[in-house]
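Task: sequence in, structure out. Protein: Geranylgeranyl diphosphate reductase, chloroplastic.
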Amino acid sequence: MATATQATLSLFAAPLPAKPRSLTIRCLKSTTRTTNPPIVGRKLRAAVIGAGPAGSSAAEALATGGVECFMFERSGPSTAKPCGGAIPLCMLDEFDIPSHLIDRQVTRMRIFSPSNLAVDFGKTLLPHEFIAMLRREVLDSYLRTRAQSRGANLISGLVTDLEVPTSVDAPYVISYTADNKRESLAVDVVIGADGANSRVAKSIKAGDYACAIAFQERIKLPDDKMDYYQDLAEMYVGNDVSPDFYAWVFPKCDHVAVGTGTVCSKQDIKVFQRAIRARAHSKISGGKVIKVEAHPIPEHPRPTRVRGRVALVGDAAGYVTKCSGEGIYFAAKSGRLCGEAIVKASEGGERMINEGDLKREYLKEWDGKYITTFRFLDLLQKVFYGSDAAREALVELCGDEYVQRMTFESYLYKKLADGNRWEDAKMVLNTIGSLVRCNILGTKMEGLKL
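Result:
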């Protein structure tokens, strides 16, 4: 390994051959005065570890902005993380997602309480509004291919080690296995987009976080039963299907995804999966399981998301929201924001960057936009997912059209919906009333921190 590392380091000083591109390179000039030294004879080199929505979006932004980018993907183009596959409407335009990737346009959500009280959620949607349902293997492949077309170099290999430099101007050395050969690559900056069990996070001692386990079965239904889920997604809450989250039946192209998740009782995940199958039995009976999937899901951002010239994005950074479990949009958004931050700080790949640049251009921007959302949804999960009584109150509240409008506008467009003060006050009173009726207000208020 020492010989390979020395060889790579010697290559590090030499410029790579220029690659012809038909794309106009977008150079984001930093408005912050910098003393970072210029890079002579080559461009800034970045490695993106992981090629899901976070990694591919980061690699696309880097390559488009003039940074020499290497994108590592261990799984190859045919596999993807198990996922419900729902994305907000704003992501379609913001990330140029073509309509042919969308399996289903969900316009109706039905949420079931522990007592099987059903409430339809979606009455306030406008004619053009819907939740897009995609398969991750399709979306990931598209984003990965697009990043390559912008100039990112895809390396199909398993990253085994990240050698952190001992001096501020030395490179990071990535060791990986490809085609049964041990290889290494030296780069200036690293983006860790390698999921909840991130090797990059471990390499920079980014700290631990709690993880949920998500378990999902893809079930191909008879045509008449699949018609029932044409534009409908279902959520189920209750201690039987999850003690601290929810279970789901989400429509895909020609099948449904049936799954659940939990943090506190991971060892019982298959018990909860049997329960969601039982709750939805009349609608999914006769179906054939075509795939079984399980994956860890982070519960909160990592203690450290930037160290040195290494940044974490997506699941590696812990960007999955509580309450809803949404992660695709925030993965892609964090990847793009981090990539653009590096382009900006390096002046289009012309200068070296440092930890301060990443914290200023990436972390400060991210936290300013989204950290309040994450904290708010964490609070909602603590209030409404702690007992079956609280879940009954949650489903009751979901029947209110004002609650539905505020929820969908915030979800679909990823910005705080414009509310009405009178309606907001009524919503607060209705929430308190529901909690009181469910006899949980006293026990919850003690631990509630606003």
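The two ends are 52 Å apart (CA to CA).
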